[in-house]
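Quarterly update, task 2.4: adenosine-5'-diphosphate-bound model.
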Amino acid sequence: MTVRIGVIGGGQLARMMIAPAVELGLDLRVLAEDEGMAAQLAATAVGDYRDLDTVRAFAADVDVITFDHEHVPQDVLRALVADGVQVHPGPDALQYAQDKLVMRARLAELGVPQPEWAAVCDAAELQAFIDENGGAAVVKTPRGGYDGKGVRVVRAGSEAEDWFSTLSDGDALLAEELVSFTRELAQQVARRPSGDIVAYPLVETVQRDGVCAEVIAPAPGTTDRHVLVAERIGRQIAEGLGVTGMLAVELFETDDERILVNELAMRPHNSGHWSQEGAVTGQFEQHLRAVADLPLGSTRPRAPWSVMVNILGGPTEGALEDRFTQALAEHPEAKVHTYGKAPRPGRKVGHVNVTGDDLDDVVYTARAAADEFL
Ligand code: ADP
């Protein structure tokens, strides 16, 4: 019988699950936030993912619920589980991707390497943390941050007054040491409900202005020890937190050669887009296989190097289609993926994947194709 998978959230991640779902013979449904998003997707419903009745009605027609984002409230998720719905990842796992303070506390219990951190309730507590950690801290809002929003480097407790003033009683901000990192890495793994796990190659992610700009797979110049450590961390977190589906672990590589966990995403992730053409099993196919509890696919790279470059919205609207045609015409080696989003400066509207034997050539072609959109 055809397995019906319901994806909550109608962004580009849901969109990129469509082709693999068709190929695997899975029936994919999407609960999109609005009609505009729904127009970009296959079979969809439209409604508010925070509303239990809406989500319940959507879930009634599918075998498995999964996600394009991590924002579905815990009470909605727990009600679905109580109804007997298969939810992957489930609320017990997802809470650690929804709240960075809850994540830090749990990773500490698991003994996973991470930056020094503390929950701070006011400017005085933040100041004390700064004084103990070399005169600086990274302050984060525990919930709802993305692409660097909700992250601030401070050198005095008073620099986060505006965030403290909006906290409800009993709530706290997350303070972290300002990690002196040489680069950022990401480790992805996929885990089935029955327990099987596969790991992807460790990749390097390059951020600009808090947004992922490029990914190189595998991460160049990495020691065997780092590859082993990162994979062990990925597996340990997937098992320890009971993650089902794709898990991305964002990592810092430090000056003194440590690997520290920055944050987690429990869904396909920007750091894994390279795998669409670069691995035997792309992350969108793998996520569907994992949440449907089907056998997982090989994560072996298809080429020595894969590079992904994000396309950030250009200056003008309307011209995107011309630029798209231009990119295809000029760069036949590049695989250009578009998200059907209106371009706004800085907004992720697509990405380019290129694979090959020579890293310099691959980087050059991927950047050149993405630059057609500037
Ligand atoms: P978001 O949830 O918005 O992606 P992150 O927690 O990943 O936020 O932080 C965004 C970026 O800020 C990271 O990619 C990294 O470059 C920088 N950053 C985050 N935490 C730290 C830290 N403790 N030390 C140094 N830089 C950090």
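Highlight for this quarter: The mean pLDDT is 94.
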